[in-house]
């Protein structure tokens, strides 16, 4: 081998040089086809032209974080063999009604290209996109291999579109409809699956309101032997759930229906038996309307539970405590703040392996403090759950000291999302701003990727973030900051920043323009109800032609004021489907 | 390059919102007191909250939580309408819809003389007895020293449980079957016996008698009730 290398090195023959200096394409493609992470693939494609080509031919799944950053034609040109597409559309604040109705992100233009370039498309995963019934029907009839549809936070369609999918997609394995703005016209779509259809593995219709025909559902579940994920809606009763479980003990993820039917003791026993036969359940959700007395029927299925989603179940602290005793393997827990600090103490005591906690408010617009969690609950969890790295915590009061304690206990946070629901609320014991709290977070949690700040915050918070948050990728800011300087600190300081979303902050044109070079390395910037003007945005657009700078005006606002601004990098140029209320500068 | 001077921040386009309603102060949420210095909706309210916080530093001399109520009724103004900022708190509307549907069975409970309200979930109880026991527990800490609570309906002692139904009439708790009660109950008030005598379920909300004890409830502006 040594002599061969020596010969090649000394050889004047350049062809031989080329041939020996790289792998044959087939080998390279084979190797690269094992790469799944799109980030890895992006890195690979930058190595050299050969690798770029090998990568693009071997890629079967493409992830597009902003549907307007690229056009379907460009995607199809680069990647000829795509079987699976993930697309995200609207800015995240559209979840909170901050983005105008007809803003865009319609999937149809993509489908029209895909039908030509990717006729064998198998999977489509959409988040915050608009998809009409016509598009769903088009999808269902145009792609004979279509297997998997996942819609999260999408809108524009009705249950009629789902009927088309059920009717035409003969090879469907996944139908996952989550938290969408769907026009629910009844549950008859479920009946559109043909009797011969048996391939379903994932069915999630938990967030649809209407009743479905239970007989149809039961037959579907019993004939789809590979079904592993079943999340039903509230119309399914406990008794019906028991029958479904009897047909599908192989389930790994279960979303129950309503958990509050009056059961006879016999039915209670049957349900317990059904749960105890489900040895593979690792994810449990639903539990709408839960009546705590029925929770014990669940216990037999909780031994291997790693993810428990109680965010639609208004449990009290004591009830949660009793349940958690049976879930020793829990890694992820979502709850409502009805569990109060008492419930969170139970979490700290019973869930040593916990990695993720989300506490949602049952009454975010409420005025008096009836149910809620406080800084005490937060501390209690951090004391017992040292592996915690993801937290989403809605509360009405917090202290700097508490947050400092939490991150001292759990220094490995990658996602820290604290929402003090009263805008501009200071540390309620000291009346100080919450600057030191978030300072502690960024100083201690060096792996921090995502941060949401809240409460009364001055520029100091942003100085801390810019100085310490070197791995930060996503930052959400609301009702915070004192001046442009705050935002400048972040733009100048956070090298890995990709997404910055800001609302109701005193940041103006100077701050916006301080990030000129930065925005091309980011996915997007959102700023609403800040102090931006049209001229400032125009200046940005002028300096940076590869950014789209979109301004959304609101009725009745000042002529020169830029109410909502969305800036994102793109290789597709300004978009042509913007509604009149959106100005592309 | 020349930048525009920052224009006076206009009011954000939020539905049903007067900006002073989102003025932030150090007090319990919902007990919003209009400061006399706030002139109109067009004030620089985006910076307003910073000013407000400073302003109220003096107002709330003791900063512990329990003192908020007494400290912050500064200006003695009537409470404003329930304020809501668009998209805040950041909870997805689909999640909020699903959970709110359940929380409609949550009703507020007021006790005459208590400084704050509680909420109970009527769905948790199977009958009146359970509910009244729970209510008693809820307000025990408040009433412990004052010995107010007597939950005996029949004997009608110091406090009488009443509720407002869908027709906005005030009724005695216990009159209708439990299931019907859950359906129709909007909120509960534990009323001092002396005032309960005025209560006539057939009287419409417009009657002067009903009005007078509604005032005596120290109830916040009706719009604040869910």
UniProtKB/TrEMBL annotation, chain A:
<dbReference type="InterPro" id="IPR006553">
    <property type="entry name" value="Leu-rich_rpt_Cys-con_subtyp"/>
</dbReference>
<dbReference type="InterPro" id="IPR041101">
    <property type="entry name" value="Transp_inhibit"/>
</dbReference>
<dbReference type="InterPro" id="IPR041567">
    <property type="entry name" value="COI1_F-box"/>
</dbReference>
<dbReference type="GO" id="GO:0010152">
    <property type="term" value="P:pollen maturation"/>
</dbReference>
<dbReference type="GO" id="GO:0019005">
    <property type="term" value="C:SCF ubiquitin ligase complex"/>
</dbReference>
<dbReference type="GO" id="GO:0005634">
    <property type="term" value="C:nucleus"/>
</dbReference>
<keyword id="KW-0833">Ubl conjugation pathway</keyword>
<protein>
    <recommendedName>
        <fullName>F-box domain-containing protein</fullName>
    </recommendedName>
</protein>
<dbReference type="GO" id="GO:0010011">
    <property type="term" value="F:auxin binding"/>
</dbReference>
<comment type="pathway">
    <text>Protein modification; protein ubiquitination.</text>
</comment>
<dbReference type="Pfam" id="PF18511">
    <property type="entry name" value="F-box_5"/>
</dbReference>
<dbReference type="InterPro" id="IPR001611">
    <property type="entry name" value="Leu-rich_rpt"/>
</dbReference>
<keyword id="KW-0539">Nucleus</keyword>
<dbReference type="InterPro" id="IPR032675">
    <property type="entry name" value="LRR_dom_sf"/>
</dbReference>
<dbReference type="GO" id="GO:0031146">
    <property type="term" value="P:SCF-dependent proteasomal ubiquitin-dependent protein catabolic process"/>
</dbReference>
<dbReference type="InterPro" id="IPR036047">
    <property type="entry name" value="F-box-like_dom_sf"/>
</dbReference>
<feature type="domain" description="F-box">
    <location>
        <begin position="23"/>
        <end position="64"/>
    </location>
</feature>
<dbReference type="Pfam" id="PF18791">
    <property type="entry name" value="Transp_inhibit"/>
</dbReference>
<dbReference type="Pfam" id="PF13516">
    <property type="entry name" value="LRR_6"/>
</dbReference>
<keyword id="KW-0927">Auxin signaling pathway</keyword>
<dbReference type="GO" id="GO:0009734">
    <property type="term" value="P:auxin-activated signaling pathway"/>
</dbReference>
<keyword id="KW-0217">Developmental protein</keyword>
Automatic annotation (TrEMBL), chain B:
<feature type="region of interest" description="Disordered">
    <location>
        <begin position="201"/>
        <end position="226"/>
    </location>
</feature>
<dbReference type="Pfam" id="PF02309">
    <property type="entry name" value="AUX_IAA"/>
</dbReference>
<dbReference type="InterPro" id="IPR003311">
    <property type="entry name" value="AUX_IAA"/>
</dbReference>
<keyword id="KW-0927">Auxin signaling pathway</keyword>
<feature type="compositionally biased region" description="Polar residues">
    <location>
        <begin position="204"/>
        <end position="226"/>
    </location>
</feature>
<dbReference type="GO" id="GO:0009734">
    <property type="term" value="P:auxin-activated signaling pathway"/>
</dbReference>
<feature type="domain" description="PB1">
    <location>
        <begin position="104"/>
        <end position="193"/>
    </location>
</feature>
<dbReference type="InterPro" id="IPR053793">
    <property type="entry name" value="PB1-like"/>
</dbReference>
<dbReference type="GO" id="GO:0006355">
    <property type="term" value="P:regulation of DNA-templated transcription"/>
</dbReference>
<keyword id="KW-0539">Nucleus</keyword>
<keyword id="KW-0804">Transcription</keyword>
<keyword id="KW-0805">Transcription regulation</keyword>
<dbReference type="InterPro" id="IPR033389">
    <property type="entry name" value="AUX/IAA_dom"/>
</dbReference>
<protein>
    <recommendedName>
        <fullName>Auxin-responsive protein</fullName>
    </recommendedName>
</protein>
<dbReference type="GO" id="GO:0005634">
    <property type="term" value="C:nucleus"/>
</dbReference>
<comment type="subunit">
    <text>Homodimers and heterodimers.</text>
</comment>
<comment type="function">
    <text>Aux/IAA proteins are short-lived transcriptional factors that function as repressors of early auxin response genes at low auxin concentrations.</text>
</comment>
<keyword id="KW-0678">Repressor</keyword>
<comment type="similarity">
    <text>Belongs to the Aux/IAA family.</text>
</comment>
